[in-house]
Amino acid sequence: MARRRPHRLGPLLHHPRHLEGEHQVSSESPLYVDVHIVHSTPYANLNRDRQGAPKTATYGGVVRPRLSSQHGRRHSRTHMENALGTRAIRTRGVPLAVAKRLTDAGWDADTALSAAQMLILSADVKGLGIADGGGTNALLFLPENAFDALAEIADAHRDALTKAADTAATAIAKAKAKADAEKTDDGEADDQEEEAPETGPLAAALKKVPADERKAIKEAVLDVLRTRNASIAAYGRMLANEGASTVAGAVQMAHSIATHSGASQIDFFSAVDDLIHDTGEETGAGHMGDQRYTSAAFYRYATLNIRELVDNLDGDVQTAREVTEAFLRAFPLAIMPAKSSGTAPHTVPHLIHVSVRTDRPISLVGAYETAIPATASGYIPASLAALDKHAAAHDRMIGTAHIADQAHVTLTDAEFNALGDNVGSVDQLITRTLDTITRHTA
Known about the structure:
This protein is an alpha+beta fold. It has 14 helices and twelve strands. The protein is 39% helix and 18% strand.
């Protein structure tokens, strides 16, 4: 597959391992890894809405508990990064982090912050500027070594940036003095139109840096903003108005919805004031309140585009294999710890089904368009049976020619013929999936 955009790879990828003689990617057909999970969670609040209640969704005409895709992506990405030993950091605080590195290297604190902010402005990305708190006005998603790289750029252009920072500081001081002098009789300053970052003192000072050096700074900063590592290759990145920094992530993740209807439940709680209790003079609570929880059997689904992943990694099939393995462990098994101290919701899925497809990803959420009814046996047996039945219906309708392989693992003794072989353990499921991918990327 042709590479669509130039970029440098992050720390995991500094030493490409796609050596001559190893498996190389083939662009003959698409290649997707679909992961389907049925997961029972206890009385908990894994994903809250703005009011602190468990999130919900209406599907099949009924309201169900829901876990947002952002929630799933965040936790699976964190676990995957821990396994790979490399992180990507999403933050507005890039200038502050770079300034900290510069002050640690001996820069004056004010000069360091101004220089770090001018690095961001030097990229000349429309809409990307400096916010009131000193950070950027938009979240940036960068490999963890990007902060060091930006600090090195500032250090390489220290003289020019220091001079520009001094110029900006002088302009800011003059503007403040002028505003103080123009205060009205009642002591209130006249309303001043706030300058945009693109036209403020820092931007004006930066424009006074010699054109050749300013161009070199811009190119170096853009190079850092376009850098990616394994995590960014998998989960993607979007920076408005800077297309070369945008990465179409290989992972797509659905909102997880309950296989059944369900409403949140209110838990009234109280907390004892120990000192009052110890005196024995008064009974009752030192604090009272209520919280909302729910319990549900969730259908969770994600798909990993192997061709996209390999392309995002510049054809590095070995690293793509490592990322795939880490993702196949992270998505099903990542702990979702919200309110965990009071609920300990540390369950594992009842079923994990993986299908490697050579046509397109296919979600099996339609198995639950008709909500599973409550029974004395709970929701899990019927949820698992519905998934197997729905997969079999897909096989009848569109055939199995594009299923390169499929298998599953489960906590139950039931057989699920439409979900491929029961391979016994998560390790075996991952190994089998990776072997299938290797055969199709040779």
